[in-house]
Specification:
The structure holds two protein chains of two kinds. Chain A is of the alpha/beta class. Chain A has a single domain, classed as 3-Layer(aba) Sandwich (Rossmann fold). Helices cover about 45% and strands about 20% of the residues of chain A. Chain A has a five-stranded parallel sheet, with helices on both faces. In chain A, helix 2 packs parallel to helix 3. In chain B, the strands form two sheets. In chain B, strands 1-2-4-9-10 form a five-stranded mixed sheet, with no helix packed on it. Helices cover about 25% and strands about 30% of the residues of chain B. In chain B, helix 3 links the parallel strand 7 and strand 8. By secondary structure, chain B is of the alpha+beta class. Chain B has one domain: 60s Ribosomal Protein L30, Chain: A, CATH 3.30.1330. The chains are: A alpha/beta, B alpha+beta. At the A-B interface, helix 1, strand 5 and helix 5 of A face helix 2 and strand 11 of B. Strand 5 of chain A pairs antiparallel with strand 11 of chain B.
């Protein structure tokens, strides 16, 4: 089963994202910030990371940089799911190694089709 | 000398607007003697400069949130889609609450981005009246949503004025947390009804979704 690491500091958002991903037939691992996500990423082999940007302790941009430094996550798709729609943040995300940028609110069907697309 | 007392020269220049809020209507509020930002349905505004944030609510809900230590905060103004076209089939409630989720998260994120801390957030809620005729209790659903959301997020509500039949005008001061609520006369609220109906139509017919870009 394809495993997705879903990272968001908002419990309601994690609920909505996990509900959508499980409904799409994915196995979901949840984390509430970048630090927790990095630990879980090392413990579990995840096939894709879906992360919020603004989070306490470690944000999504920093998490992406850290993950890209790990041999296991060099080529794993990392999608940012965020309320940030500004160019600056997007450019930062791209430079950090993100695969794509999804602006909230998300459409569940579009989220799933985007995930399937980047999983190839 | 009377020179310094001229009314116009007493108005201080407006504080700089934070990035992302350039489209919000800002003005000098004579009655309160402060710079103010007025938000419409679907908008939100955050200030770090002690501006007043103002809105007029019917069945919509406004959350006033601030970091009580730093005095950084603001207000959103939203309603959930009521039409069952969004809740049909797979996805259920999650689809309907996307608007509310976005409005709440966007406001909280803007505060955290400016240096607010989640642990210091103070929440006040207003609106959710049953003011539109011939409609289901949209106000009640908005109230139910926002209460559930805050409970899930572990955020406490320190003050609220919700429900009822009268529209409200809310003045919020994020630097002190003070709120002033004025009940409006139902018959003089045509502008409000029209604006809220237009907004209801928009949230019911426009799918709530942001852009997707693959690098």
């Amino acid at each position: 089963m394809t495993r997705i690491l879903a990272v968001d500091d908002s419990a309601s958002m994690r609920q909505m994202v996990a509900f959508t991903l499980k409904g799409g037939g994915f196995d979901v691992v949840e984390a509430s910030d970048g630090v927790e996500a990095l630990e879980l990423a090392k413990e579990n082999d995840c096939d894709l990371v879906l992360t919020d940007v603004n989070m306490p302790n470690m944000d999504g941009i920093e998490l992406t940089k850290e993950l890209r430094g790990l041999a296991n996550y060099k080529f794993v798709p990392i999608l940012m799911l965020t309320t940030e729609s500004g160019m600056d943040k997007k450019t930062e995300g791209r430079a950090a190694g993100a695969t794509g940028w999804i602006v909230k609110p998300f459409n569940p069907d579009q989220l799933l089709s985007t995930i399937k697309k980047v999983l190839g | 000398m009377m020179k310094g007392l001229a009314v116009n020269s007493a108005i201080p220049p407006p504080p700089p607007v934070l990035a992302g809020f350039e489209q919000i209507n800002r003005y000098w509020d004579k009655s309160q003697g402060v710079h103010a930002a007025k938000i419409l349905p679907g908008e939100l505004y955050v200030s770090v400069h002690g501006e007043m944030v103002v809105t007029v609510l019917g069945s919509c809900v406004a959350a006033c949130i601030r970091d009580r230590v730093k005095g950084i905060g603001g207000m959103n103004h939203f309603m959930l889609p009521q039409d069952s076209q969004h809740s049909h089939g797979w996805g259920g409630d999650a689809l309907v609450t996307r608007y509310g989720n976005w409005a709440m998260e966007a406001l909280i994120n803007e505060i955290l981005k400016r240096g607010g801390k989640r642990g210091y957030l103070e929440v006040k809620l207003f609106g959710g009246g049953q003011v539109l005729e011939n409609m289901t209790d949209i106000g009640g659903r908005n109230i139910e949503f926002v209460r559930t959301y805050l409970k899930d997020e572990g955020l406490e509500i320190v003050a609220e004025d919700l429900g009822g039949r009268a529209p409200r005008k809310v003045l919020y001061f994020p630097d002190t947390g003070a709120c002033r609520v004025r009940r409006l006369n139902r018959v003089t609220s045509d502008t409000l009804y029209n604006r809220e109906r237009a907004y209801a139509k928009k949230v019911n017919t426009t799918p709530a979704e942001g852009s997707i870009e693959l690098f």
